[in-house]
Amino acid sequence: MAPLPRWLATTVCSPPVGSFTDQLAFLFLSPCPQRAVLGAVDLAFVVASLAIVARRLRGGGGDTGDAPEREALLPKPSPSVRPFRAAVLYALALGASAVFSAASAVLLALALFLLPNTPWRVGESALLFVHFVAHAVAACTVASERGAAAAALPLHLRVFWLATALGGALFSCSAAVRWAYGSLLVPDDPLAFVGLALSLPLVYVAITSSSGLVADTCAGEPTEYTNAAVPVPAPATPFDAASWFSFTTFSWINPLVSKGYASDSLAADDVPTVSPGHRAEASYALFESNWPTQGSRHPVGVALWLSFWPRVLLTATLGLVRLAAMYVGPSLVNQFVEFIRNGGTTWEGLRLVVILLVGKAVQTLASHHYTFQGQLMGMRIRGALLTALYRKSLRLSTGARRAHGSGAIVNYMQVDAGTVSYAMHGFHALWLMPLQIVVALALLYAYLGPAVLMTLAVITAVTVITAFANKLNLAYELKFLGVRDSRIKAITEMLNHMRVIKLQAWEEKFGGKVRDLRQTELGWLTKIVLFDCANTVVFSSGPLAMTVLVFGTYLAAGGELDAGKVFTAIAFFRMLEGPMYNFPQTIVNCMQAFVSLGRLDKFLSDGEIDRTAMQRVESSAGDSVAIKVQGGVFAWDVQVAGKEKDGQHDHHGAENGREEEGPEMGTVLKRIEVEVRRGELAAVVGTVGSGKSSLLSCIMGEMHKVSGNVSICGSTGCVAQTAWIQNGTIQENILFGQPMHTERYMEVIRACCLEKDLEMMEFRDKTEIGERGINLSGGQKQRIQLARAIYQDCDIYLLDDIFSAVDAHTGSAIFKECLKGILKNKTVLLVTHQVDFLKNVDTIFVMKDGVVIQSGSYSQLLKSCSDFSVLVDAHQSSMGVPGAGEQAVHVQNTGHSQATTVSEKTPPVKFKSRENGGTSDVAPTKEAGSSKLIQEEEKESGRVSWRVYKLYITQAWGWWGVVVILAVSLLSEGCSMASNYWLSYETSEGTIFSTSAFLGVYVSIVSASIVCEVISTLFVTFVGLKSAQAFFNKMFDSILRAPMSFFDTTPSGRILSRASSDQMKIDTTLVFYVGYAMSMCISVVSNIAITCQVAWPSIIAVLPLLLLNIWYRNRYIATSRELTRLQGVTRAPVIDHFSETFLGAPTVRCFGKEDEFYQINLDRINSNLRMSFHNYASNEWFGFRLELIGTLILSITAFLMISLPSNFIKKEFVGMSLSYGLSLNSLVYYTISISCMLENGMISVERVNQYSALPSEAPWEVADCLPSPNWPSRGDIDIKDLKFEISRDGMRRRLSSSSPRVPLVHTCLDRGLPNRLWLRSPCRTAPHKRGETGGT
């Protein structure tokens, strides 16, 4: 075999002397000209890209347009778009370019540090630098094309990719030839094959993307969900309109930061909207489109991965770039030490400083975009999950509703969705942190040799301990989550039935149940936190143990330690502290996310209402039947495992192959045969429990249809037996989303007998109704929901016992004006016990034991149906029984003319009404300036008060706890500094005199540092848990003692938000924030002092930069604090709306209002996402600037080290100073971030504390007024000069009465008078102004 030409086997750049063919072969196959040609291609691409950008800037850019604020419910991509293919192309293009760029950056750093100082290193470094810049520009170009709806990728980009692939092929050909001859150039030739493999995807993208790479935001993610027929342009958001420089430096959020700083407060309207592709509807549409159609054990995880894997790939690439740039600084420590010790040219020193500056700047840039993109992905995941959970709650079957309950679903929305969204970003740490450790150890191996392998023993021990701890911790997590769900469910039940609890004086009983659950929850939480503390101590002490073992092994093997090796190793070991410290928490977060995913899987795969149980048919001219049930057999909660219902299953339904776990019950309705003709008034009667309400439910499609057919012709409206009222004004409840038509509206008000009620209210129909109609009487709620149904103008009305809560006079008026008046041409199916009205209905259905036993007219049934005759006779006998009104009450009211005496056999209970001398009973007041009963949620503004900080840190053990934490933190930092000073002192002369003394002192100092760490962590943990429990007890006790008016005017979502998410933050997050903040502040001061001690003149530059730090911090915290508060304020309406919808889901479905309620939910979620998005952006805006300032401090110090005279430099501390300085920028950032996170976390303390000092009821027991042991002795009730203040309608009433001991007392007051208030007055749930009630 002929020998290889010299120019092919070496790196020479001189061309051979020979023929033109030899010259051409040299040009394309020799390593040196190959690199020159490839570098020229890279430079040409960069120049072309800059020219195109400059031309666009001169042209003013293109038009921007976004989707409208309110978009379609479930928008679908255009049929011409192929989202999966677009996603693949986008991911290939962006991923390959980013990997090329990151690999070039890593190889550039290695070439500068490891290659000898020859011309080849200069050429190799120049090529790698140009390659890094070119592929970075290519990645940016790909990302910039995300908003170009169907545009092809730029021609110059595709040509560049093809040229890169051609160059990779030439490199690989040369490498293959050298390989065949056994003359490989290492590592160039192996890397050539890798480069060719990476360039092949770019060739595919370049060829196939000429007609458009993407048609959406990112990898198949929809950007525009709008009606193409009616385009509604919207202004571009600051994020969308940002230039690349603004996007890169987060400058696009400057206006919001400036506004927050200038005003010291932000309103919700001050915060811009989020991009269309980041809204909840877009994220949910993507999530739903990727829901697995085949059976899957983890459908939520699969759908999230298929939906967001391009974002995962993007954040992974940014993480790799950050990881690569992270090693530049530690690799320079030894070279700086050698330069200072041995001297060198100015150019060499400047080269080191420039490389340090660029490396740290790239690390800062990649780090913050990695975090921001991860948080953005998490935000979109949270939006998708919240939307999916709400949508699922609208369609849950009855059994599933019972199994989960409102409280558990609140936890799914508040906690589980947040846990999963956070972990989807954080799971990168599961592979990035081990990779960071492996690369650091590999680089350490170059300095310390086989001694580095001793670190494997530490890593193995740490891994085993962590695996064992996490196995136990996972079981504790499951127990903790279960108990927490039970606590939230118990609190939800209490809030929903607080009036009953207070009437029965059951506060202590129910409060004790919640406290017991909280104690159990705190027990599991304590175990979890202690395991977290143990993991933290093990991982944080791991690098220290590694240092001792590696240095000891290296010295025992005969190696010599000098300052360069020691502090290079220290710098690398410092890099291990972060991953080893955070890795246990990452594992815990991922385990929590795994548990939460399981809970979400179960809920989103649970049973839904069978939409085929009821069929809506089109009306025809000859069809006179409105409601028809044939052979119907229906049941509650019966689920058939794996059975598909006519092939129609929802994406989140049973097609996943999951067996339903709901309880199986017997059939409720059997052999149902019902037919109601159009325009007919039909009634359903029967004894209690005969199945009347169930019949209406089966017609509405709410029950499981075992067999038979149900068909409805026309739109439906219903009035449920239990009134469902929304939190809003009376007018909003009646309109129910329909436009206002004044004439019809007033007609409905008259027909439902609401005129008199509205007259008595100060703001009439603008009066706001409390949560679930809590400030209305039963009759008022029933008539309002009847008015709501009538105003919708439906074809068919299903009315369930609408007369149950109204008096006879009002009932008669409603029957006449509504059923026989405004609804005379409608189809009405009425469930009733009022036999008097049955003579005027067309058809009567008699039910018994779940069966329609007979139907017909009133007269027919009296003759032929004995069960119906029994019902009629029972009603007539109850109305005419002697003594039925025997104990009635004479009612007199001076403000009205009516006075009724039912019986006078017993002394009457007289009501005297007097106001201002007895001249008036009703005195309207105009003190109230607003009709709103439910006010906007209270939100503090400005800085979190120092009183809140003091309240939290002194809650457990007063100021002594703070002193102990501070003292232990000082000791720990002192030990850490002492260990490094000892290393610096021992290696200052180049050799270590006594190995045993050196290691003995070092081990002692390290051990003391670990002990201080253990003490500090445990103490902070116990202080935090005790404080958390104290805050919960204060809030819960305050809520229990709050008067009923507080619950009338406070949505339960506000209370639940504080009891769940805010309390969770106090339990698990603030536990560590205070200790971290103290210790990190001490570390910053020590790091700056040590960094500047070598070249003390650097203080002159450092002080202004530190002042700039403080300036940025003040601007940032004003905005971040307000955005955090707005996050909390906008989170509660999401829960309020869900709780309200969950209770009224059957009504919503019957009226066909799912889309409207879904849109309201989207608006509220988007409002919360808007605050989260800009809060994330402001965090990275701040962090990016802080880390750049830290990089400048380090670079200035390094520059002064190489430029100042030797008498200014303390050479023995150069390595130590640099090793501390390398971590300074991130340390300063995390310190100030922790302080800001602490302040934002204190907002949770602030919110919880708001409900810890609520106005209280009178004491439950008054020592001077305790009743005698034999009370009550007679059963009399005395009411003396009792005055009511009723703020909702501005009326005051004063009543006095005395009721003797009688077996039964009737109160018959005119409609609208305070019947319920009088009955509630002995129970102290009525709003007393003065007077007293008592009994004997």
Automatic annotation (TrEMBL):
An example molecular function term from Gene Ontology annotations: ATP binding
Role, per record: ABC transporter that may affect phytic acid transport and compartmentalization. May function directly or indirectly in removing phytic acid from the cytosol or in vesicle trafficking. Required for phytic acid accumulation in developing seeds. Phytic acid is the primary storage form of phosphorus in cereal grains and other plant seeds.
Similarity section: Belongs to the ABC transporter superfamily. ABCC family. Conjugate transporter (TC 3.A.1.208) subfamily.
Membrane topology label: Multi-pass membrane protein
Upper taxonomic lineage: Eukaryota, Viridiplantae, Streptophyta, Embryophyta, Tracheophyta
Name of the protein: ABC transporter C family member 13
Transmembrane segments: 36-54, 87-114, 126-143, 155-179, 191-207, 429-448, 454-474, 951-972, 992-1025, 1070-1088, 1094-1112, 1188-1206, 1218-1238
Any single Gene Ontology cellular-component annotation: membrane
Compartments (UniProt record): Membrane
Region (Disordered): 893-934
Annotated InterPro entries: AAA+_ATPase, ABC1_TM_dom, ABC_transporter-like_ATP-bd, ABC_transporter-like_CS, ABC_transporter_C-like, ABCC_6TM_D1, ABCC_6TM_D2
Principal place of residence: membrane
Alphabetically ordered keywords of this record: ATP-binding, Membrane, Nucleotide-binding, Repeat, Translocase, Transmembrane, Transmembrane helix, Transport
Domain called ABC transmembrane type-1: residue spans: 313-592, 963-1204
Annotated ranges, domain ABC transporter: 638-874
Organism: Zizania palustris
Pfam families according to UniProt: ABC_membrane (PF00664), ABC_tran (PF00005)
Annotated Polar residues bias: 893-904
Keyword Ribonucleoprotein in annotation: no
